[in-house]
Amino acid sequence: GTSWRFNQGTRAMSSAVARSLRSAPASARRLPGRAVLSRARSTAAGGVADDAEPQGSLFNPTAEHYALRELCAAFVRDEVEPQALEFNRAERFNHPLFRRAGELGLLGVTVDPEYGGAGMDAAAACIVHEELSASDPAFCLSYLAHSQLFVNNLARNGSAEQKAAWLPAACSGEAIGGMGMSEPEAGTDVLGMRTRAEQQADGSWLLNGGKMWITNGAVSDTDLGDRYLIYARTAGPEVVKASKAVSLFYVERGMAGFSLGQRLKDKCGMRASPTAELVFENVSLPAANLIGQPGGATVCMMRNLEIERVVLAAMGVGIARRSLEAMNAYATDRRAFGASLRDFGQIQRHIAESYAEYMAGKTYLYQTALGLDLDAAGNRLDTDGVKLYCTTMGKNVADRAIQVMGGYGYMGEYAVERLWRDAKLLEIGGGTLESHHKNMVRDMSQLDAMP
Fold first, then answer.
1. N or C, fewer C-beta in 10 Å, the chain?
2. What whole-number distance in Å separates Cα of residue 89 and Cα of residue 86?
3. Of the candidates 224, 232, 230, 227, which has an alpha carbon nearest to the alpha carbon of residue 262?
4. Rounded to an integer, what distance in angstroms lies between the CA atom of residue 232 and that of residue 193?
């Protein structure tokens, strides 16, 4: 099962547990009727397949990465998959499951052990996001907002005192966090934000404004999450250029003037991941709640956007993997006109193109992740590029899975329609496709030759 915790002190499992985690349900015989769909529905729900890439491969670079993937796969199989459909239909956040991820050591995967984390790298973060998204992208999105936009952001940009004060509870799952950057009239144009923080005579800051589309902004229809990193303007364009006018602050529930504007419901997808509007009305922040230097948050923002885009790409890979396995199993077991569905050329095109695109995307993902330094910026070309490719690829593979499975694929019971709806957000959040086009072409103007 998943009763053991993943951290630097836990690197090995008994061979019996390893065999159990690697086993995946399969059947060599053809299954008629509804059983065919049950197999397609459960395929890729969790567990590392017997022919999964071994440790030392691109996708599992070390024994630690492989052990992490096995842990995540077991967690998905035993605890994430059974609740996914229920919580998505109800548009409810599964807070106990989130805390369970903390117990397993997953919430601080890129954080130093000193602060309660596992001390791993960007590839490890991709493994967790890939495995979770193969089952429940909505839960994974909340995991991303907490583990990367709050936890990793603070771990990279906070002082030792700030990290010691705020990271342990976030890594354990005691507190749930998020990040506030987007506003009602400032999305891709992030430096056009209007939320302001003004420094007071005693060194404190007074925060006013609002943030929109905030993942983990609420944990229910009425309750805020616990902790947030909020970007705010601390100087006007008449004083400094826009990139020097933004600062980053730590804000927590219970501060006077900090409230939930509204929980945003009836979304196309990601329904089990709560999205909210946050409101700040004369919120007094101690000087110690400023992360970094005044006006220095743009570098923090760009650095954290790079890992955000890489793990969003990993979500696209997870969605593609589950969709591909579902359509592949269905096409094998379903018969039409006296033959297996996979014998028809139109179906073969859907499966073959999906596999090629999935493998290309997964390779690009882990190649980019393994070259990513979480403490440095300047990797925008490929962090944008891998998100540009993998998010659309995941959506397209999910779309083909629905097409192959026909009416069954269109039904919520069989997962791929939910994956298809969830995938669309990946083309918007963390940077739109259009912003990636702009960024990449701008950076490519400095290249004399392609790599």
1. C
2. 5
3. 224
4. 7
> In angstroms, what CA-CA distances link 139 with 67, 85, 319, 401, 415?
21, 11, 13, 21, 14
- Contact indicator for 84, 53 with CB cutoff of 8 Å: no
Structure token pair of residue 84: 């996914």
Give the tokens for residue 215: 């993942």
Phi and psi at residue 108, to the nearest 5°? -125, 40
CA distances from 13 to 1, 78, 448 (A): 11, 17, 48
d(CA 443, CA 430): 18
DSSP 8-state class, residue 186? B
pLDDT-wise least confident of 34-38, 217-221, 428-432? 34-38
Tell me the HSE value of 433 on the side-chain side, using a 13 A CA sphere: 10
Distance of CA 88 to the CA centre of its chain: 16
Q: What are 179's two structure tokens?
A: 């990040």
Bridge partners (DSSP) of residue 335 are 340
82-137 pLDDT per residue, tens: 999 999 999 999 999 999 999 999 999 999 999 999 999 999 999 999 999 999 99
User: Residue 215: what are its φ and ψ, rounded to 5°?
Assistant: -65, 135
Side chain identity at residue 151, one-letter code:
V
Return the active site residues. Answer: 308
Q: Which residue has the tokens 């909020």?
A: 230
Using a 10 angstrom Cβ sphere, with 0-12 exposed, 13-18 middle and 19 or more buried, the burial of residue 237 is exposed
Enter the pTM of the model: 0.89
Show the tokens assigned to 134: 């193969």
- Token code pair at residue 270: 């990601």
72's tokens: 């995540």
Contact 131, 302 (CB under 8 A): no
Question: Predicted confidence band at 238 (pLDDT cuts at 50, 70, 90)?
Answer: low
pLDDT in tens, 24-48: 332 222 222 333 333 333 443 444 4
Nearest in space to 264 (alpha carbons), one of 154, 184, 342: 184
- Which residues, at least 6 apart from 303, have a Cβ–Cβ distance to it below 8 Å? 156, 157, 374, 375, 376, 377
Return phi, psi of residue 374, to 5°. Answer: -65, -15
Query: Tokens in use for 427?
Result: 């083309």
Could you give the residue ranges of the DSSP H alpha helices within 134-218?
137-144, 153-157, 160-172
**Strand pairing report for 290-291 and 246-252:** antiparallel
Q: Which DSSP symbol is given to 343?
A: G
Residue 237 corresponds to which amino acid?
P
C-alpha–C-alpha distance, residues 385 and 364, integer Å: 9
Secondary structure (3-state) at 82: helix
What's the rounded Cα separation, in Å, for the pair 317 and 126? 9
